[in-house]
Structures are given as structure tokens and as C-alpha cells.
Amino acid sequence: MPTVQDRPDSTGDPLKSVASTLVPAANCVAIGLYTRMLKDFPWLSRVKTDDWDFFLTIAFVFVAMTQLEHEGLPQSRVDAIIDIVTASFTEWQPDALGAFDDCKAFYEQGSSDQELRVAYAGDQARFHSADVIAMWLVWNLLKRRATEQDELRVARERGSIAAHEFTKWWRS
Questions:
Q1: Residue ranges per structural domain of the chain
Q2: Distance (Å, rounded) from C-alpha 42 to C-alpha 58?
Q3: Contact indicator for 59, 158 with CB cutoff of 8 Å
């Protein structure tokens, strides 16, 4: 399986074309998940589909962009990819960058919260990052914290899908 580092870093950088498809692909996945999730969680019908599409897309892109920072690429290459994704975000939704920054701030706060880290000790540690992103997602969809068991299940499932699908984005 090729790694990101094995790909050429030249004018024809394949990651640039991968970057240009990130936002549309994330949006397609978000749209497709709504109908599937609605079957299992009818209460989701209270969530505006535009909000669902918007916030899930943001969460999916956030996961991919966070992973990009861990791929060991030269900073100039990362910066060029960030520019492409930023332009795609702006074209897709004018307020996407603000929501992305909000997701990032929420994630950083949740990742550094010592009390939360203790709650995710041992076996649960693998869910920590996905759950923090999912908490941000549910907070924005419901305009409040997830409190019901079904809401918490949706949060974990969405966070897990984001982590699973979009951490591998740069290796596809």
C-alpha cells in the first residue's frame, strides 16, 4: 500500500487533486448518511437536513485535515493542500471556514481536557478523538449537548465514521 510520502511532490502532485475532491466527497458522504441514519434514529427528523449536511461535511474535512498534519509531508506541500481545501470550502459554503475553526477549537479543548482524558482511560481511549468530534457535531445539530442514549449513540457512530473514512483520505 503506498504511503503519502511515496507520492511525488512536484507540479503534478497527486495530493492536490485529492485535496480538490475532499469537500465535495465529504459532502456526498454526509448527504448519503442522513437517510440511512433516519431509519435507525427517527428523532433525527427534527434536525434540518441542511444543518446535517453542513456540520457532517465540516467534521469529515476536519478529520482529513488533522490527519494531513501527521503525514510527515514538507510544510510547503501541506500549505499548498490547505490552500486548495480552503478555496473549496469557500466555494462550497461561505461560512464553512468559520465552522471548521469552531470544530478545531472544540477539538483542541476536548483533547486537552484532563477530566475527559481520564474518562477515556484504558479501552475507551481509542474513542476519545472520534467522540470529541461527535460531541461538536451533535452540539451543532441539536443546539445543545447530547443527553439521550440515542443521541449519544448517533454521536459515537458519526464520530467513528468520520475517523474511519477520512483519516485514510490522503492514502486513497
A1: 14-171
A2: 23
A3: yes
